[in-house]
Amino acid sequence: MLVLRLHTPYGEACSIEGPSWPAGEAWRPGPSESLLRQLQLVYGIGPHTEERLRREGFSDLVALSRHPRFGAEARKVLQALEQGDLAALRQAGARDYELLSYFDSADLAVIDIETAGFRGWPVFLIGLGWQEDGSWRVRQYFARGFEEEKALLYLALDFLQRFSGLVSYNGRAFDEPFVAERLTYHRLERPHFLIHVDLYHEIRRLFREELPDFRLSTVAGHLLSCRRTADIPGERVPELYLRYMAEGEEESIMPVLRHNEADMVDLCRLFDLLTTGAGRSVA
Fold first, then answer.
1. For residue range 207-233, what is the model confidence (pLDDT) as tens digits?
2. How far apart are CA 70 and CA 90, in angstroms?
3. Whether residue 221 sits in one domain with residue 83
4. What are the residue ranges of helices labelled H in the chain?
């Protein structure tokens, strides 16, 4: 484990270099086949109408563009798909996960945070994963105490500037608003991303009938055949961090660092599993 002490305008924080491994198949950015098949992106088409249109031979938006009633609206959606107009596609009902195909995989950062408690408590660890030269890489930014949180956030924000999108697991509900609150507290500018893909919602949609629960460790065990034998439960993270701050013993924080690293590896591998060549969803 390579640990670096990094200086910032707001003090010091740690950077910890994690593992790297070959990434999944890349894709060429552009409209995906799954989007082209979504007739419900056209205004006025719901599930029942879509089913009827498919029976009539309108299997995708290109075919639908010749329909006497829906053709004009279908052509508008096709234009948005061709131009990569994300705002128009979202307005039509496309999910961020479905818009992944417009981004190069190297433009996306995977994120998972650890906090010292619920809202109002500091963030002390930010795990980040990204693709570089065909491989996944993982890095953790770590604050040894609450006084290093601002430096930690500064380092993470500085690193994230190179990316246009985020990938997380339940990050829309937890990570993103939590970090936003801490940035406001420290008067740091909140970053803007063009896309935020929350894999939690996609896992629930795709595997609702197969999984007993949707904790990341459960999902990884089922879909990746990856069983964690020595991992700590996530609810113990604040306790161990507070003990580390009080005692200064490295052994107190190591299980937390390993837990976050395992989450990051599982997230990156799940991302590869749920995306295939040409950015097409497995759905």
1. 988 899 999 989 999 898 877 777 888
2. 19
3. no
4. 33-36, 47-55, 61-64, 71-83, 86-92, 149-160, 175-186, 199-207, 216-223, 237-247, 250-274
Interhelix angle for 237-247 vs 250-274, to 10°?
150
Cα 142 to Cα 111: distance, rounded to the nearest angstrom: 14
Query: What pLDDT digit, counting tens, does each position of 237-249 carry?
Result: 999 999 999 998 8
CATH number of the CATH domain containing 175? 3.30.420.10
- Decide: pTM greater than 0.85: yes
Instruction: Tell me how crowded residue 76 is: count the other CB atoms within 10 A of its CB.
Output: 17
Rounded distance between C-alpha atoms, residue 111 and residue 166, angstroms: 7
User: 202: buried, middle or exposed (CB in 10 Å: 19+, 13-18, 0-12)?
Assistant: buried
Cα–chain center distance at 17: 20
Range of the domain at 72: 39-93
Mean pLDDT value across residues 42-48? 96
* 3-state DSSP assignment of residue 87: helix
Residues 234 and 177 in one domain: yes
